[in-house]
Amino acid sequence: MRILPLCLVPLALATSGCISTATSIVKAPFQVAGKAVDWTTTSQSEADRNYGRKMRKQEAREGRERKKAAEQCRKHPDDQEACRYSGYRAGY
């Protein structure tokens, strides 16, 4: 009776590596699918970061246009067309 438990201990230690490998093999397709979904979708934080970058670029463009319009108005104060600035419209 005492021999059986002593034989089971090395057997359990030997099979733990096999069990670990088997679980890795079973989990692999799910991990690959999860990475594919992560690569193809945009998280909310990524969307917020991209939107912020887009808005900063638009604001910089608007600032350049305002500066250019003010400079044209200073150079040609009599020209009504040069002094008219309709403003930047985002998304157009």
Automatic annotation (TrEMBL):
Composition-biased stretches (Basic and acidic residues): 46-75
Span of the signal peptide: 1-22
Region called Disordered, residue ranges: 41-75
Keyword annotations: Signal
Domain of life from the UniProt record: Bacteria
Full protein name: Lipoprotein
Organism of origin: Sphingomonas liriopis
Record lineage: Bacteria, Pseudomonadati, Pseudomonadota, Alphaproteobacteria, Sphingomonadales
